[in-house]
Amino acid sequence: MTTNAAAISHLPVALVALGLAPMAAHAAILLKLATLAPEGSAWMRTLEQWKDDVATATGGEVRIRIYPAGIMGEERDVLVKIRAGQLDGSGFVGSGISRICPEANALMLPLTFRDHEEIDAAMSELGPWLEERALANGFVVLGWTEVGFSLLFSNREIRSLDDLRRAKVWSLPNDTMLAELFRQAGIGAVPVPVADVLTALQTGLLDTVYSPPLAAVAMQWTGRVKHFNDLRLAYSFGSLFIAKRAWDRIPEQFREPIREAARRRTAALTAEVRRSNEESLDVLRRSGLTLVPIPPAEVERFRDISERTRVALRGSLVPAEADERVQNFLKRRRQP
Asked: Residue 101: which domain range?
């Protein structure tokens, strides 16, 4: 009797424990991501859509929380917080990507690509390798998306390299790649943080900036210039990254649906960004900005400088293997 009574007295505790076990096993996994994209932007809309996709695909067992508009700091700050475990991932662009995957710099060197067809073929061939390199550095790539080709916007007509040398050209502080390009070209650029560029244009500290058209319009730079040209100075792209340690927390059956949803959304974002960049150029033409074409001979001068820049950065900013892969791709792509 005593033994049975003791067993019975512990029965409610055992039942409670058994009842709680499934709840603990199915507790929602929360992934925290940060982005510089502001509320209402195409980037932020894409992340919100993907957030809903994840909740649906996992039955709510994996949830995404997004911190927009740089409230978690610049990309460098966000990366520090990811590595410290305070955040789990982010949508990075340009220099943020290069900190995770330096090999990506080989695709963002100035004047490397000539059109979207080359870009798409390069990403199809080289994207999986870049993802392997990112994974080796502790990050899972969920999707790539376009930022676009940067054009020159100026208060003076830029038709030649000499015209650009006479201009007050903006440079992004700590952008080693473009700093080397300007050095090779003999251009004395003025470093100004992005947040201060509009003021610098208003005061005359700058008269020439570079940006994809959509971004230039969004930041109101185009309201302070008179001209733009057709030189595709550099190509930049973005990516949705998640730390591998966070990815490994996700039950295996959910990983592929989450990745597939991210790839579908980022592909749609690329198409939207391309349309928006073209529409932005139409808006600029209608608003009075004039297109200044660059003569073919001057384009070749710029390409020569770009080649010298590539050689100067090979093995330092741009890993040699990445440079070799991109150059081999371009040779095959462009051969007669």
From this structure: 14-334
